[in-house]
Specification:
Length: 205
Amino acid sequence: MAWALFSGRSLRTANPERILDTDRELRAALDNRILLLLFRQPRCPRCREFEPHLRRFWGRLTDPARVERAQQVGLVYVGHDRCEQEHLEYLRDMARAWVALPYGDGFGRELQQRFGVSELPSVVVLAPSGSVLVPNAVREIRDLGISCFQNWKEAAELVDRNFQEREEFQGWPRRSLTDPLRRLKYRLWDREEEEGEKEEEERRE
């Protein structure tokens, strides 16, 4: 599960006095959501250029003033901050629902290596299962806006709990007619698939 990446760890919130440090809190914040891992450096020009696009994208998915029901999405900030003060300044300004790895946490480097992050900014998109939907969604978020989120949901086969609570939607199909095409484009890049490809290449050699 995607939230389990952070099991046993602490995540900071926009409120400096609140830290998520139990699995119960982490699960409540991150479970059953499309999870975005944001890798950025505050003074990076490309990161600063992308930031308004990301905040607009987030607001259109979650802001009560814009949507009737917030989408099931979470974001973890994996910062490349130069000092703790810079890190805290970004946390104070970030969206309320975002969480962040604490400054100096070496797990950030592990995540960067695990998901092959080679440039900043990067947004790794994970399905609730933990499978990678998009290795870097910066361009999609910037160019497509919230339309790409529906693609991610369908690729992840995410069950929207909000829809389940409303009787008028109970008879609706869960997938669209374009599901096969979307799943082809946004197929899950999980470890088993990658390992299978490596084994196949070794056999050919």
